[in-house]
């Protein structure tokens, strides 16, 4: 029985040693392949924000935001004024008048909330519509740039999955320059001008 236990330990040790040897050999074989890989990183969000077409799109979204925000502020101020009037008069109003004013205030409050939610949704939709074609163009430029410069892999930095990269592998600035100089610029400008 004792020989079996000892033999078992020796057999296990041999298997572990063989496994480690296989891993070392595998790593040695993988090392030259890894050395041949060329990797780049791009921050697509920064590229979108810094390219000319992206800046124009953001300006349009900002202008729409400011117009809608001013309308909502006016409506909110009116609602606050009506609430203040109600609170001052509530004690002297008849029961039926008070209930009618409460219903009116509640209705206006719900209408304001609905308009605010619609505003938020429309703002997101406008941003998505204006930037969708720009993002597609940027992806195409990244793919072409990667192929032209022999990159094996181009990683996206703003997704949150990339924890660290050496700044020398960041191609964001090059992609922004290419986008600004490309024919895509005019196509993007025309589509933004339609909005």
Short structural summary:
With 195 residues, the chain is mostly helical. It is built from 6 helices and 2 strands. Helix content is 79%, strand content 4%.
What does this protein structure show overall?
This protein is mainly alpha-helical. It is built from 6 helices and 2 strands. It has a two-stranded parallel sheet with strand order 1-2.
How much of the sequence lies in strands comes to: under 5%
Low-confidence stretches: 1-9, 16-29
Strand order of the largest sheet: 1-2
Question: Distance between termini?
Answer: 85 Å
Q: For the report, how would you describe the main beta sheet?
A: 2 strands, parallel
How many domain units? 2
Quick one: how many beta strands? 2
Structural class: mainly alpha
CA radius of gyration is 32 Å
Mean pLDDT: 80
Order of helices and strands: HEHHHEHH
Shape: rod-shaped
Helix content bin: over 70%
Count of individual helical segments: 6
Topology, element by element:
Elements: H1 2-36, E1 39-42, H2 44-50, H3 52-89, H4 95-148, E2 153-156, H5 172-181, H6 184-194
Helix pairs in contact: 2-3, 2-5, 3-4, 3-6, 4-5, 4-6
Give short descriptive properties of this protein.
single chain, 195 residues, mainly alpha, 2 domains, two-stranded parallel sheet, disordered N terminus
